[in-house]
């Protein structure tokens, strides 16, 4: 049978690859494998395949069968002798790299938590730095204002004392028929008293 196929494989007609592929699938069918080769060839000729196309289909079936056997044997060898498991290197550099990665991850986590605390938690608990600066500046201004008012109060008291002394001197040197205290001096004394009362009632 094989000699007949080889003798007819030298036809000049071009091989139709699609028909060859269909014939290979037909020959690989488990039900078709049990039939004799003559019956297979006769069926393929009825379908319009040439002798060269039938020969090529048989050759491909034979090649694929041999390839399947070799592949099966290789799989059996791999299963019989499995590869040893991969051993993780226990060198110094491997441990150092592991510790370095862990340290970097820890440092990044600490930095993120610190930024979150500074940006959100601390201002919420203690107020922002700008607000604290404004409060401190306002307290300082109030302190300076209190000091200024205290100095002004002392100055007004000194002025009032000086005016009173001047009034006493005028009274001693006054002449009969002349007003003992000039009106201008009384006005000054009244203004000083008003300023003093305002400072004391602030």
Automatic annotation (TrEMBL):
Coiled coil regions, renumbered to chain: 128-162
Name under which the protein is recorded: Peroxisomal membrane protein PEX14
Family indicated by similarity: Belongs to the peroxin-14 family.
Function, in words: Component of the PEX13-PEX14 docking complex, a translocon channel that specifically mediates the import of peroxisomal cargo proteins bound to PEX5 receptor. The PEX13-PEX14 docking complex forms a large import pore which can be opened to a diameter of about 9 nm. Mechanistically, PEX5 receptor along with cargo proteins associates with the PEX14 subunit of the PEX13-PEX14 docking complex in the cytosol, leading to the insertion of the receptor into the organelle membrane with the concomitant translocation of the cargo into the peroxisome matrix.
A Pfam family matched in the record: Pex14_N
MF terms in GO: signaling receptor binding
GO cellular component, one term: peroxisomal importomer complex
Residue ranges constituting the Peroxisome membrane anchor protein Pex14p N-terminal domain according to the UniProt record: 16-60
Organism: Araneus ventricosus (Orbweaver spider)
Annotated keywords: Coiled coil, Membrane, Peroxisome, Protein transport, Translocation, Transport
One GO BP: protein import into peroxisome matrix, docking
PANTHER family the record matches: PEROXISOMAL MEMBRANE PROTEIN PEX14
InterPro entries referenced in this protein's UniProt entry, alphabetically: PEX14, Pex14_N, WH-like_DNA-bd_sf
UniProt subcellular location: Peroxisome membrane
Top-level taxon of the source organism: Eukaryota
